[in-house]
Amino acid sequence: MMSFRQAKKFLVIVISTLMLVATIVFNFGTTSAWAATLPAPFTSQFIAMNRAEAMTKNLEGQAQEALGNVTGDPRDQMMGKAKQVESQMHNAAEDLKDEIQLSNRAKAVAKNVEGKIQETVGNVTGSRKDQMMGRLKQTEGSHRNMIENVKDGIGDLFN
Which pairs count as long-range contacts for 36-44, CB under 8 Å and 24+ apart, including other chains? Predict the structure, then answer.
């Protein structure tokens, strides 16, 4: 049977991971995000875990669960399953983070391409408005790209 301390640790892991996912989805990189207000010991272990560590945690959990199955120890079975769930949650958070970053990067690239096309049309037709709007869209695309670079840099500080 799981002790109170182990159950508490498991719940802290689950709740903190869910809060991290919510932070990534709604306010990644802002100081008003939930994870930014948590004490460092709660967030640092989750933010620092990358995919390789999550995979290691999953393998460790599978081994511990298998050991529990062989020995008949329900504690090892439960702790093994808990480690596997923790690993899955970290991978889901990484997937979500990757998806959000790609979509923002894609928006920046699309805006830049749109601007280049509009500027080219303006050059061909002689329309100063299209030339100016095209350059403006390219600038907006560059700024969006810089914002994503800053977000990546902030994310790297925690990894």
Answer: 42/12, 42/16, 43/16, 44/158
pLDDT tens, 87-100?
888 777 777 776 76
pLDDT, tens only, 32-42? 444 444 444 44
Given a contact cutoff of 8 angstroms between Cβ atoms, the answer to whether 115 and 137 are in contact is yes
- Contact (Cβ atoms closer than 8 angstroms) between residue 135 and residue 26: no
Q: CA 139, CA 147: separation in Å to the nearest integer?
A: 12
Which residues lie closer than 8 Å to 76 by C-beta, 6 or more apart?
64, 65, 67, 68
DSSP string, 57-123: HHHHHHHHHHHHHHHT-HHHHHHHHHHHHHHHHHHHHHHHHHHHHHHHHHHHHHHHHHHHHHHHHHH
| Placement of tokens 């923002």 in the chain | 104
Q: Which two tokens stand for residue 15?
A: 């709740």
Question: Is the distance from CB of 111 to CB of 140 less than 8 angstroms?
Answer: yes
Cβ contact 43:24 at 8 Å: no
**Alpha carbons 21 and 100: distance in angstroms, whole number:** 11
Q: Report the interhelical angle of 128-158 vs 74-125 (nearest 10°).
A: 160
